[in-house]
Here is the input.
Amino acid sequence: MSKLVLKNIGKTYGNFHAVNDFSLELQSGEFVSLLGPSGCGKTTTLRMIAGFMPPTSGTIEIDGQVISSPAGVVPPEKRGMSMIFQSYAIWPNMTVGQNVGFGLEVRKLPRAEIERRIDRILEVVQMGALKGRYPAELSGGQQQRVALARAIVVEPEVLLLDEPLSNLDANLREEMRFEIRRLHDEFKITTVYVTHDQSEAMVTSDRIVVMNKGRVEQIDPPHVLYGKPKSRFVAGFIGRTNFVDRDGGTYSIRPQAIGLSAARPVANAVEADIVGRSYLGEYWDYLAQPLSETKPLRVSTGPNVLFAVGQRVWLEIDPAAMVRVE
Amino acid sequence: MTAVTQGYRSEASRPSRLGGFDATWLLWLAIIAVLLFLVVSPFVYLVLTSFQNEKTGAFTFANYGIAYGRQRYVDALLNSLQLGAGAALLAGAFAVPLAWAVSRTNMPGRGFVRMLVLATFITPPYTGAVAWILLAGPNAGWLNRIYVMLTGAEAGPLNIYSFPGLVVVIALYSFPYIFIFTNAALELVSSEMEDAANILGAGAWRTMRKVTLPLALPAILGGLIICFLEAIALFASPAMIAIPARFNVVTTQLFQFFGNPVRVEVAAAYAMPLLGVTVLLFLVQRLITRRKGFVSLTGKGGERRPIDLGPWRWAVFGYAMFVGALSVFLPYIFLLQAAFAKAWGRGFALDNLTLKNFNFVLFEHATAAHSVWNSFLFGAAAATAGVIITLGVAYIVVRRLVPFGGILGFLCVAPFVIPGVVLAIGFYAAYAPPPLALYGTSLILILAFTTRFLPIGYVNAHSAIQSLNPEMEEAVRVLGGSRLTALRRVVAPLLKRNLLGAWLLIFIPATRELSSAIFLYGPGTKVVSVMIFDMSEEGNFEYLAALALILQALTLPMLWIGQRALGRDFMLRRTAT
Here is the structure.
């Protein structure tokens, strides 16, 4: 049975539709990301799941029971969920241990059991030595780990994450992505993760919901989203791509799906000039202008494939790699 | 459509909008009632009373006729306006160079100058006025006597009992307002903005004139207006200086309407222009300091390096010491002299030293010690009430728990535009008559003080709650705690310091409040400010100085606590005024 079900959820402010006809079913233990640019409605959706705001239409169910509808919502404290906030929301007046133990106290567990669980979860997030510290004494990454521990220790029905990594620097962000996925694999908590960072979503998620202007564009596993984007928006938002108009339709071709060679290949070849290039260490990024087209194409090659600007080249395009988008 | 599940997760949970509805709305209603009582009703009664016949209560314009029927009543109004303008300009001349030097230059002793401004700020205007009577009274004033001694002239040149004398005394004890405003603005001007002017070829002087000062100008103007309003609302200094000098200002004239017999209807009518001017200028001040471009001063503005003044820094320091001498050094030296003297006129001599003044006011005088106790008791009660009320309102407003919460916030800051004397007349009109008949009780003083300092509490509570990320509370709720749990376990502990700060910022001025107390005290509820005022009328300067110094000494521990909790400058921030 589905764990969490959102049926035709909508949220409007006056005439503005923040979220429009949003439907999603999460299986138990599934990790789903809501991905989209800022203002696309992903955080609004998450806050409706958490119970901080009622939907203006539709319902939210957990284990088959309605917890949100325009008629009313079960308040956040009665939902058995956990949430990790963008600011971490670690309480500075409590130690690491007190922060982590708070949810257990509210659940009126025996003191000894609370301490045992705090110790265990702090070991899991590698913060065991810092139980007595105050948050002001912790680094951003450590605060993030406290937030994770605090949310997981109560063994929530659903775990919600609201852009949890956006305040970390790039290296730490990459580390924490894997950490979040590792914790998920260990505890199997049904998770909804909000982010505007596609690589975050791709590393962590079983499925990704791409949102734009309050609407769902596509719901699929990461590799399907990348390989078979349904819309122009999805193709452009997930990874880099070229758009080509053919036969009255628009097609997306990834830069690395285009071959680049000095000699004419066997088939599907187009003649082009190199009009720009940039070197990014892991690959070359060439801008090639096909002689038959008006728009140049982006082409990625290995770091050892060298062409000069102005050089005449051949582009090889596999028709199977061209995906028709709306 | 399925109904929302009842009793999800075993507890009897109801939808939050219904569950939270009752509690929040009850609180909202309670706060509305309190604010109606404290703010709206005195104001309404003030206006109504001004149109009522004293005997019959019938509608009439007669009060206005009486209030403005004589030239000298109108003159008092004009005097007030001149006084306000003069005092504000002079205070600006004191404050702006000091604020600039302290916040932007390498003038020596910047911390010390800040301390002097703080010392000025916590000196009640009436204490300053008394000190200046000792300093610049005709003939007997110390500065005059020193002048005569040095030059052999027949008489000294200074006479505090004059219009310029009053302007100086008021400017000296209100310039900290302008200092605070200017300082706050200058602290937001980043060195990079000045660097940008430098790199385009402007020298230090031109940079200050063209970049720094214009950026701070709205704040300076705002400070001048606040200073003006402070000056025209003051009661004590004019009463001590203008009345002997035989001229009146609005507040002293109001006091006379309030004397025997009490003509509260006429007083209310007479207070209207004062109220009107205050409201109008307050709006202008808001308009000036809220203008875009000014607020866009980059808050993060990078680091700020002090401007190197070279040898000029000693000249600026000299000016700061000059201002400090006028507002702190000289007044306190001669207040101390008077407090420890058998007769202050006999000067600094060992055989003139005595402790009997302190002994007298503390142990022998019938009501002096009690008046100190009253001030602290009423101040503490008002501060406590004020903090609780404003915290509730600010929480409701910031977290948008009810529609139209903004109205509550407005009511909390509205008393700021009501001068103390006018507020007192409103309270008198509303609560002196039956059924409440509060006149002369402790309660009416506590209520009036609470109302008077509500804006300070609100501004502080509002900014404190705004600084608190709502996610802190949401994290509590999502983990299973109620809103109340969030308030108890997270909000209250986190705001402890701010609330203590707000409490002190109400308590300290409340212990020295005179202008509203003078119209509302009764035989058993005299506060120390009224006591000091009475002593000045009796000419008991030795006792008075002793009592004034006791009040200052009792304030120091409060100041120390506040500085420990909130940092050295907690009284010199903009939210403090």
User: Anything to note?
Assistant: The mean pLDDT of chain B is 85. Chain B touches chain A through 33 residues (CB under 8 Å).
